[in-house]
């Protein structure tokens, strides 16, 4: 259970906040990490990771050797660069659907996904996008 969910539970139940619960919740705060592979059919294009509250993207070695025959992804013009950002890039962010859609809200509630947790949202909804042919696979 995340920190904010515990706070909500304590407030609604009127329970006292126990130091043990707070410590456990605090350990989960900001410690999330994830790795995704970006594919075009069976071809690995690159790797997106989230670690230490930062996103990174880099092209795969396979892509680097054949990049002359393929289009580069918008926003990532240098095949040799490791891109770093505090924010998820628009190329990946568009894979997360509108969070006010009733069906999406239902999934978020059912699966206990916070609507501000882009890592979990991307894991849940990010595999395919109607805006491009790439697939994003969760590795960890």
From TrEMBL:
Residue ranges annotated for the HipA N-terminal subdomain domain, each copy included: 39-129
InterPro entries per record: HipA_N1
Protein name per its UniProtKB record: HipA N-terminal domain-containing protein
